Amino acid sequence: MTDTLMPFSLRSAVAVGVALAASATTLHAQPTEVASAIYTNARIWTGDSASPSAQALAERDGKLLAVGTDADAMAFRGPATRVVDLQGKRVVPGFNDSHWHLNTSDRADLTDAKSPAEIVRRLKAWAAKRPAGAWVVGRGWTPSDFPSNSPHRRFLDVAFPNQPVILTDRDGHQSIANGRALALAKVTATTPDPARGVIEREAGGVPTGLLKESAAGLVSRLVPQPSRADITRRIDEETRKAASFGIVLLQDASPRAPEHVVFAILRAAAKADTLRVRYRAAVPFSPDATAATVRRYTMLRDSVNGPWLRFGIAKGMLDGTVDAKTAAMLEPYAGSDDTGLPFWPAAILNRGVARYDSAGLQVELHAIGDKAVRTALNAYANAARINGTNGRRHRIEHIEVPALSDLPRFKQLGVIASTQAIFATPDQTTLQNYAPLLGPERSSRANAFKKFDDAGAIQAFGSDYPVFPMDVLLGIYTAVTRQTPQGTPKGGWYPENRITVEAALRHYTKDAAYAAFMEQETGTLAKGKFADFVVLSADILTIPPYDLLKTKVLLTVVGGRQAYRSPAFP
């Protein structure tokens, strides 16, 4: 039957049926969700090997509805959808800082002071704004700031004869106290060295004021602690700063008991949904922790496990630092018989790691020297063997000077290499104190990020803030060039250890999220994951390395929220 011969009523019914079918097809093709925001016209590095690049993102309720072309994203546009044209800017997944510390105290900044005179000048300026007679506290000095790399209280005693002073070094592993502070703490020539600590002395056992590792606590315990209001303010300030650097997840490596006021503030903020960035907090790792203590930690992990705040990792210490000569080494420091300061006998450490491992807790161990790194790897291997466990993703923090023969063990054991890109900065301290203490052979494998990559380790980058700035782009620059921001030394410090921008970017995103057990939620940009991303002022994958220092974060989005927006963002 042709259309011209079809009765009118039948033709009408057919037409209506065709129209309804077409309408149903159209409705079926429409997305079931409408985006809150769509970001178009971008150059997106997704970090997802299945689909490494994209042009646009669509977001709703904090998660990604689409990652693809402009058309893919615009298919989710509704009447109230906000559409943002990114004008060809580079977009990357939000950065993760895998090793960061919440700075809760107000202290004089001694970074790059370079001389005792400058340290004193900064301290006096800081103290002038505080009550008379109050403790003077500061952080950021390095051994190379002092003559012959030898810090001494005499520089402080002259400037502050009646006011207590304690200054923590850049790494946080040694402090200088003046005579007044030592007197208040009753630290004298007859005071014994505490466990895992050293009181440096001169003739007759008189303290020089230099207190290494736990010895600093003899004095620092007297410094007034910040109030809850102070800590709340600092959390707000520090997370704002993190967002301004494009950071969407902070992994805090400062261990605290479940009842600590910092955790109470964070939990309240998470409940009120006011955290600016995601936060993963650590409880203490102690080899002699009881089963009851470990149960408290697992209860905290299980009860606080939301999108903004999580627990489940325990932080411990195995040694100190190279600059303090407390990092535990297999061979003595150059020109010395000293091999550092191991914190725990292997047998005790092994039992403790096995206890946490059996409870399902991830362990992260600070280990800088090659001896400490090997001890940590042995403890993880022992725990997996006796517990029959795997997939715990235990971590070693810093790993500055590993033995090359131990690098393949990271992949074999599934241990995360938690390293800090900016540690490869060849500054005055590195060249005048750090490298001479190690000698050429060990210096050549210090902070050698490419060697970890070549060994197949999963490497998660962090800053160790406030030891170094939490500036991710500065960290990428350092890992790529192994030079100071001034471009020295020419060609880089041990340039064979440089990595590419893309490798560094992966360590700050995908690998760092994996280290936090969050790779299914963040670290890459894919449909269904959190809308955590950063818009940059330049294309860091194509510009010359030095231009990384000029690149700015324009926009940081965490869970669809604008956590930071630069005044330069259109």
Q: Describe it for me?
A:
- This protein has 570 residues and is α/β, with parallel strands linked by helices.
- Among the domains are: 1-30; 108-220, Diaminopimelate Epimerase, Chain A, domain 1 (Roll); 284-521, TIM Barrel.
- 32% of the residues lie in helices and 21% in strands.
- It contains 18 helices and 24 strands.
- The chain has an eight-stranded parallel β-sheet. A six-stranded mixed β-sheet has the order 3-2-7-22-23-24, covered by helices on one side. Strands 9-10-11-12-14-13 form a six-stranded mixed β-sheet.
- α10 packs across α11 (370-387).
- The radius of gyration is 27 Å and the shape is globular.
- How many alpha or pi helices? 18
Number of strands: 24
- Measured between the Cα atoms of the first and last residue, the distance is 62 Å
* Structural class label: alpha/beta
Largest sheet strand order: 8-15-16-17-18-19-20-21
- The portion of residues assigned to helices is 25-40%
Quaternary state of the chains: single chain
* Content of β-strand: 15-25%
CATH topology of the domain at 284-521: TIM Barrel
Q: How is the main sheet built? A: 8 strands, parallel
What do the pLDDT scores average to? 93
The Rg value, from CA coordinates, equals 27 Å
CATH homology superfamily of the domain at 284-521: Metal-dependent hydrolases
CATH architecture of the domain at 284-521: Alpha-Beta Barrel
Uncertain residue ranges: 1-30
- For the record, the CATH class of the domain at 284-521 is Alpha Beta
- What is the overall silhouette? globular
